[in-house]
Amino acid sequence: MNLSSHDSRRYIRLRWLWLIALFPLWELIRRSFGVNPLLMPPLAEIFREFVHGITGGKLAARWLLSMALVSGGLAAGTVLAMILVLISGTGRAASSCLSLISSLMHPLPGLAILPLVILWFGTGTDAVMFIIIHAVLWPIFVNLESGVRSLAPAWEIYARILNLGPWKAFIHISLPGSFPHLISGLRTGWARSWRAFIAAEMVFGAVGALGGLGWQIFESRVMMDTAALYSALLVVMLTGMAMEELILARWENKVRRKWGELQT
Hints:
The chain is mostly helical and 264 residues long.
């Protein structure tokens, strides 16, 4: 959906208004149908747990740990994707091989390889990082390779004239020219890595001494503290939406406007 800058801002504001409207709807459903508070706690209890978790530091610390791990996996996956795209450009054999691997691995959910990851890395931080990188690597590789292949042949001739090596040509020509595709891959990779981390931690257990948001959800479920459970889910959803709407989507739109792909 191609929107102008003004229409895009209105669209985002409307989405946040719909989010706000869901809160009174929650309370209306809970009271109208007499839902057990254990299943649907009052909003006041959820927000109280949310504020207590933030001010008390526990929820905030787990959020920071989660963001640090996902950001680290996103950075590592991006670098690996760049290396694979560079290798893919060395010849038809390398390109066909990596294309096959990508086709096999891209649709494979991280949870599907959990048994193998446990055998290889155990259940610690290394295993969680592997799941995050797997979730990030393939969408970024596919988008970035598509962007590099869509560049005009004149850019390749330009790199030859300047006697640029493969890595310098990629950094100075291919990467800037395919930057919109890279950001699209980052948006997909972020969403997949955020989901993968939460799910992996619920399976593997706490990462580090305190654990992240996935462990908060698992721990709250075990203790039947549904108010804390919903507050953690609220943090997960708001973080994902904020990263998508306020950072990555704006960054992508800004780059695409610069490239002339969107109206201002």
